[in-house]
Design brief:
The protein is of the alpha+beta class. It has 3 helices and 28 strands. Strand 7 and strand 8 form a beta hairpin. Helix 2 runs antiparallel to helix 3. It is globular and about 75 Å long. The relative contact order is 0.10.
């Protein structure tokens, strides 16, 4: 397993990156002793709307984007294009920058209700807002995550050691490989913790304001049932012994949760995360997200999408996944549903849509230009996150 950078190097790179971002965003950096980016509030920057944004979501007429150095931007599309004061994007639309307590890259954002929002990012950071994304507080981070990961690995090792010690010699020979595996996993967890909170969270979803989940690199998955006051590692519920990354998380009111992961894996729960099954799609690359449509009977069709334009489909009652013919070789990074169809955006900003049968996929817009990381839909517009800040397109019909 690849190890993160050592703390000193990691912090030094972060400081150098911070200076570069400050200059890019029109802020004169000041000389000071290094501080952990987890303890430095995001800089309110005149050019924040032209920074790298890594994800987007919509709540009513409001669109919120998260990105590098803890930048969170929000805008009410019911207002005029230049209403209010704030940072202007490349098309002159005004965005307001939120108050954020960290300068960590943020990777995903979701609302659990009109005023309550959640964001996750590097260093295992989880943020919460109760005022519609205007201000945020940190409720979890990689230090706390590491404590639970190490404790879980130690318990598994101790349990396996006790089982091994109690076994007869012939049985011990069979258990030796398992014991070595859990010992290695414990050593790996300890090594990761020594490097600091370096493992990112990559996605978040909440069923309501109290219960939600965050997922990330190296098989991290945590659950809260008290609105973020406490978090519990539930990695032992999933079949992921090699600690593959969890890249995307989907949930809905039926109890369905889906995780898109490495090695073509999709993990499914139908009871809000109490139990999980691993679905091997036959694909060996990365999935970045999933989407779901439902027929008149409420039966789900699941789409998994990701690297190099790959899209796989699992229809109601199907025994195997079916690969759609893709019109692009660029990775699909985010999606949304329109009735029985799914709209996906690739990293060049091209929109593709499935047909109503869910068996065909075609482009409905051309390349946008700069790299794209995600999208949100508001009214008849699509807001893209990516390099150079937010960009707005008309929603294809």
């Amino acid at each position: 397993m690849t190890k993160p950078m050592k703390p000193a190097l990691n912090r030094r790179v972060a400081w150098m990156h911070a200076m570069g971002i400050a200059l890019c965003l029109g802020i004169a950096p000041t000389a000071h002793a290094f501080k952990d980016p987890m303890d430095i509030p995001a800089i309110i920057a005149p050019k924040a709307a032209k920074a790298l944004m890594l994800n987007a979501t919509a709540q009513g007429s409001k669109v919120v984007l998260v990105g590098e150095r803890g930048i969170v931007l929000y805008r009410d599309f019911a207002a005029g294009a230049e209403a209010g004061s704030g940072a202007k994007d490349a098309d002159g639309r005004v965005w307001t920058q939120a108050k954020v307590p960290v300068s960590i890259n943020l990777t995903s954002i979701r609302f659990s209700s009109p005023n309550v929002a959640w964001a996750v990012g590097h260093d295992g950071v989880v943020l919460k807002s109760t005022d519609g994304a205007q201000s945020w507080v940190r409720v979890f981070d990689g230090n706390k995550a590491n404590e639970q990961v190490v404790a879980a690995a130690k318990k598994k090792m101790d349990d396996m050691q006790a089982r091994f010690d109690a076994a007869k010699p012939a049985e011990q020979a069979k258990l030796e490989a398992e014991l070595e595996a859990v010992q290695f996993a414990f050593e790996d967890a300890e090594a990761g913790a020594r490097f600091g909170p370096a493992r990112p969270m990559l996605d978040v979803w909440f069923k309501d304001d109290n219960q939600g989940w965050v997922v990330g690199s190296y098989g991290q998955i945590f659950e809260t049932k008290d609105s973020g006051a406490s978090w519990t590692l539930i990695a032992d519920r999933l079949n992921n012994p090699d600690f593959r990354h969890y890249n995307g998380l989907y949930g809905d009111s039926t109890g369905l949760l889906l995780i898109a992961g490495e090695a073509g894996r999709v993990y499914r729960s139908t009871n809000f995360g109490q139990s999980w099954e691993r679905l091997d799609t036959g694909y060996n690359g990365h999935f970045y997200g999933t989407a779901v449509t439902r027929n008149d009977k409420g039966e789900a069709t699941v789409y998994a999408y990701g690297f190099s334009g790959n899209v796989y489909r699992l229809g109601p009652g199907a025994a195997a996944w079916w690969k759609l013919q893709s019109p692009t070789k660029e990775s699909f990074v985010q999606s949304f549903t329109q009735g029985t169809t799914v709209m996906l955006v690739d990293q060049k900003g091209r929109l593709a849509r499935t047909d109503t049968a869910g068996t065909g996929l075609s482009l409905v817009s051309q390349a946008e230009g700069k790299p794209v990381t995600g999208m949100a839909v508001v009214g008849q517009s699509v807001v893209l996150s990516g390099q150079g800040g937010p960009r707005v397109l008309d929603l294809p019909r």
